[in-house]
Design goal:
The structure is a homodimer of 219-residue chains. Chain A has 219 residues and is an alpha/beta fold. Chain A has one domain: P-loop containing nucleotide triphosphate hydrolases (Rossmann fold, 3-Layer(aba) Sandwich). The longest helix of chain A is centred in the N-terminal third of the chain and has 23 residues. Chains A and B meet through helix 5 of A and helix 5 of B.
Chain lengths: 219, 219
């Protein structure tokens, strides 16, 4: 009897749907970013601050992934972005299929950027391609500076790592250089930004990074 | 053809092994706590502070669960506790079988308390019984005060919720009462402690809570 590796089967099915999503995003000419972090690292706050800064210049859509509640989509809608909430009902990550299931509810053609805020989890979302252009791994200074090596998968896959909550550095023992060094060991091509989404420090570099990616995508 | 629910099958196999672990722990007369939280909420720091305070009075063993690295077991060993590291190699939670696999390496008969520090993940570990007496859900003030309703499973299952990092409250917008109210809605019988493992505030209540549980277990 042939042995079936269920994990591999799920992964290749996900990859197929992710490729379909990617073609759809490319047709619509939108830049798509998949944000991954632990719960409470500041993904939604980063989106709020980003929407504020791109308001009037770029049209932003958000796909919010959460186990439960509509809290995050309400927060980004309050800042003027459109979007949709996916509740996984216990599921620990978004899949390409879940994203595909909501694309019909989004006016992709009129958008410039789609942010996908993944379920708060530093492990499971790391290996699920959703069809995004850029995978972003977020860390918060408040989580301690030992995290990259303890949760390596996301940094292997990410094109950008963000260290958020740098406004709290004066009250913490946190070595930013240790973190950036570890990310570099795991993935030398991963870029790194440090910022405070809440207070604004470093946000300019993040916005410039997005604009650069957007211009490359739009050619 | 009979349909097999793989999720249910895994769960019931896990429950069987968890019951076996529980019998083993009870034979040895040890109190076993399963600590669950996001990465960086302070589980290991709480263990360090707990070991320091119970040193000379109670014999503590630690089972450390991590995707990768031996960092956490090194930290608790440095404080004088015995124990063992489980690396899941990508796995997002401990299972009863993983715990069963290391029990032979632990001198349970000479111990009073076994702490199991689960993999840093607020979702997947919540539904895996490991054979523990007490499931503890940790939150950090730095993660924001909207977490219980967004990650309800752990609070449905926990006997105790801990809000850690209260020393940072002066620098955050965090409503402790909102969090304790939400936990109470999810699980009215869940007890709640607020503390700072790093600075010591509230640690006395936590130690008293453990001693109370220990005296009940030992009869």
């Amino acid at each position: 009897m042939a042995k079936v590796d269920i994990g591999k089967k799920i992964q290749s099915e996900n990859d197929r749907v992710a490729e379909r999503n990617r073609r759809r995003f490319t047709e619509a000419g939108v830049l798509v970013l998949n944000l991954i972090s632990s719960p409470g690292s500041g993904k939604t706050t980063l989106l709020e601050a980003t929407i504020d800064r791109l308001s009037g210049k770029r049209t932003i859509l958000v796909i919010e992934g959460d186990v439960s509640t509509e809290r995050d989509i309400e927060r980004v809608r309050a800042r003027g972005a459109g979007g949709v909430q996916i509740n996984t009902g216990g599921g620990c990550h978004l899949s390409a299929k879940m994203v595909a299931g909501v694309l019909g509810d989004l006016d992709l053609e009129s958008a410039d950027i789609v942010f996908i805020e993944n379920v708060g989890n530093l492990i499971c979302p790391a290996t699920y391609d959703l069809g995004e252009d850029v995978r972003v791994g977020l860390l918060a200074t408040t989580e301690g500076d030992d995290k990259p090596m303890k949760y390596p998968a996301i940094f292997h896959e990410a094109q950008l790592a963000i260290v958020n909550k740098i406004d709290l550095l004066p009250y913490l023992e946190y070595d930013v250089e240790k973190v950036t060094t570890e990310v570099g060991v795991l993935n030398p091509s991963c870029e790194i930004l440090t910022l405070s989404a809440l207070k604004g420090e470093g946000m300019k570099d993040w916005i410039a990074w997005i604009e650069d990616r957007l211009s490359r995508k739009k050619g």
